[in-house]
Amino acid sequence: MVLPRGRDARTVPPMIEVEALTKRYGTFTAVRNLSFTVRPGEVLGLVGPNGAGKTSTLRCLAGIIPSSEGKVRIAGHDLSVDPVAAKRSLAFFPDEPRLFEYLTVRQHLNFVARIYGVANYEDLAVPLLEELELAEKADVLPGELSRGMKQKLVIACGLLHSPRVMFFDEPLTGLDPLGIRRMKDSIVRRARDGAAIVLSSHLLHLLQEVCTNVLILKKGDKVADGTMAEVAAQFSNGEANVSLEEIFIRATGGSET
Amino acid sequence: MIGALFYLRLTSLLNLVAHRIGRLRQPKYLVGAAVAVAYFYFVLVRGPVRAAGIPAVAGGRQIGFALICAFLCLLGLVRIAYAWIFPPEKPGLRFSEAEIAFLFPAPVTRKTLIHYRLLSSQIAILFTSVLMAFVFNRFGYLGGYRSLRAIGWWVILSTYDLHLNGTNLTLCTLRERSRHFLLWRLGVVTAIAVYVVAVFRSAIGLVEGLLSGPISAQAGSERFIEQVVDSPSLHWLTLPFRIIFGPYAASGLGEFAAAMVPALLLLALHYYWVSSTEARFEEGSIALAEKRAAIRAAVQRGEIPSIGNSKPRARSGPFPLPPKGLPEMAFLWKNLLSIRSSLLNRRVILLVVVLMVSLFMGPLLSLRTETIGTEAFRKIVAVLCGMFAAYTMLVGPQLARQDLRSDLPNADILKTYPMQGWRLALGELLAPTVILTAVLWFMLLVCAAAVDTGEGGWLTGGVRVTVVVCLALAAPLVCLIQLIVPNWIMMLMPGWYQASRSRVGGIETFGQSLMFGIIQLLFALAVIVPAAGAACLIIFSSQWLIGPGPAVALAAAVVLPVLAGEAAFGLWWLGERFEKFDLSTESR
């Protein structure tokens, strides 16, 4: 499934602007000179072999780690100049649910509401918990939740302040089939509502279903970037209906790194 | 099959040693190892004992051994009694989670697993034996050869380990097969209690008898102990322990060889007991491994693991948290909530109440009657409170860890919050600051109530109130600064900090912990001593002109902003560092 995009989508100012982003760990360069944009309503699939620099890119974009070089603008705010304003607009969903052991589901939402200053959080929390099937577990500690439930709680916390930019790192890990379907629908719905989303995953069929754009990384370098159709055209060699999996293998040379 | 398990244990050990040696290439481990080796050398190896075969100090040896043996016997008995009084729901042998995953489904008999367990224990026992020989030989009056002492320790620890394993396996069998599990336990506990009472009564009777009789001063304490230990009743009552401790207490090679025969026989009996048990310990072992993993995780998170039920319970927040307001308060709310319920249980509250009542009783009584007894009591209370306050300031920050240290695994999430670094750091440090400040204020109040004003002295009521208020204002700042230090260390050297939190770190992580403790102490001295010195200087130089009360207030007016500035700088730096912090790379 590909999101319908308006004809003037490219005229809308981007919510995520990445310009010559470079991330180095000592002498090792994880991401090299990466530039791209994501506009409201777009879902960018970030793909690449293990060690390609996907997680480093996502962590730089979410303000978790500082970039070595380059600029990142979130909702118009330069992440290095005004990180607080930029972070107000974003939500990061890690692959491993990180929760506070002694806070119940409801207390997590209360805590996050205070951090982001969500005045009407109680009105928002109820439908959110129901949508994520957490309403019955509202007074339960994370230790009593399954991994999928924990993942849902992370999502509930991330969505509470209605972010306009979202970063998902392997969002389907630990979810059951129904949860996967709901998560995919949720991502598409948020994009339709105007959110700019970056999604990193090895599940290429997921990306093919929900992404409007794709960015392929290999050894920290950008190999391909554009709409699904543009990237497909770049690696199809004239063939029709080439799958993202085939594109990925051709783009990365079929090797790990 | 045991060959494969031996290979697993030996290879694991060799790889562990190789890994530990290999990581010494990193300065953080090399420095830690150097500090630890220096500590062990200067504190344990050099000490009073410098060579093997040191002669025992006359009169001291017998007392030393008697005390050590009596203490260890009591400890062992308490542990065994505890196992029978509070047996786990599923008794089992100790295996790691990885061992359970690989060995339990493998085609290995229970007996082989038991042997593997015993073999695994031996590595730790051998290491501990050598260490104990060094530690206890520090006391010169014990004399003897270190190598023989080490073997003596090996006999003691191996017998104890076998006995504990045998107890667990027997408990496991009884719980599963006997309908009278409770009766069995009652019987064993009663037997232990009867034994302890019999030993104590015999010992007390003998001591009283000897004290009332003619004891020459020359015979001294050594002869006295000999008479007590060698009396017929105690001789037979303590025979099993005497056999176990025989090789350790031997003074020469001949005595040692003679003592080893019955000791090894007893050890062999224990081995037979353990190896012939047909207990189904698997479920218990799995439960035990899960519990240990939870404890290890709690320790690594910087928490104090609970002894009993390690599962946290949902509790209501410490105060209502409206969605609008300072975000720092959300961290205070969260971290206060994270304080383990075990710290707030009825026993702890009862203990605090008893302490408070006993501390306040003296000052209250002294208001009615001025006697020498109450006077002395008040002084003791004041000194104790002062000592406890100093302890709280120095050690408290290492214990109250509801801050960035316990939230380290959540660093990625915290960094996505729309907060400046220093505000996040402040929020994280609020909870331990509040806890430590509350303790200090309480001690300050008790101390103020206990200190005697004296008739016509300079410490009038007004001066006392001024001092208390000024110290109370300084307390949260000092606590905050003291808490910034370990968080600083963690931010500067996250790899070091992470390693020192690990329970399987080795000698180098011990050295790292030692260094952190020294840094904390030096920092406390660097911050508090100049401030206290400046305050004293101001008070003594100005009190002639303006009087003691205003002089104290003036000193506080100068010193408190300095402390506040130091705290503000520390928070700013911590926040800056946190914003650039990446645990995934820095802890490598």
Structural overview:
- The complex is a heterodimer of chains A (about 260) and B (about 600).
- Chain A has helices spanning about 55-60, 85-90, 105-115, 120-130, 145-160, 175-190, 205-210, 230-235, 245-250, and strands at about 15-25, 30-40, 45, 70-75, 75-80, 90-95, 165-170, 195-200, 215-220, 220-225.
- Chain A has a domain at about 10-90 and about 165-175 and about 195-255: Rossmann fold (3-Layer(aba) Sandwich), CATH 3.40.50.
- In chain A, helix 3 runs parallel beside helix 5 (about 145-160) and helix 8 (about 230-235) packs across helix 9 (about 245-250).
- The radius of gyration of chain A is 18 Å and the shape is globular.
- Chain A is built from nine helices and ten strands.
- By secondary structure, chain A is α/β, with parallel strands linked by helices.
- Chain B is an all-alpha fold.
- Chain B is globular.
- The longest helix of chain B has about 40 residues, at about 505-545.
- Residues about 50-55 and about 365-370 of chain B have low confidence and may be disordered.
- Chain B has two domains: about 45-290, no CATH class; about 325-585, no CATH class.
- Chain B is built from 22 helices and no strands.
- At the A-B interface, helix 2, strand 6 and helix 3 of A face helix 13 and helix 16 of B.
Summary tags:
heterodimer, A: 257 residues, Rossmann fold, four-stranded antiparallel sheet, 9 helices, 10 strands, B: 588 residues, 2 domains, 0% strand
